Amino acid sequence: MARQNILLLLLQCGSVYITQFLYLKMFIFLLVNSVLIQIISGDVLLTPTNQQQSTLSLLLPDTSGIDGQLTANYNIDNFFSLWLVFHNDDIKVSDQPFTIFAPINSATKDTNSYLRNSEHVKNLLLSHIVLGTQIDVEKQNTTEENYETLSGRTIHITKKNQKLYANDALIINQKIQLPAGVIIIIDNYVLGKANLNNTQHPENIPVNLLTTISGTNGINSSALIQQTKNTNNTKFIDNIYQVLSFFKEGVRVFQHFLSKSNVSKVLKDGQEYTVLVPCDSAFQRWHPIDWGFYPFSVPEFTEDVIRNHFIIGNIRQNSIKGEEEVKTLGGRILKFSLKPTLNVNGVTIAKGDTAVKGGNLMFINEVLFVSESIVSRLHQQHKDKETPPLLAFPWFGAQFLSHAFLALEGDKRFTQMTRFLNLADLAQHVSGTGYTFFVPIDTAFEALGLNNMPDNYLSTGDGLKLLLNHFVKKRLYKRDFINNTTLTTLGGDSIRVIEENGNITLNEAHVVEGEVFVYNLGTMYFIDKLLFPLPNTLQEVIPTSSTTITTMITSTRKQSTETIPEELDVEVGTSTDLLLEESTDDGQSNTYQVPFILSNKLNISNPIK
Question: Were 196 and a residue from 114, 207, 215, 387 both cysteine, which residue would form a disulfide, CB within 3.0 to 4.6 Å?
Answer without folding.
Answer: 114
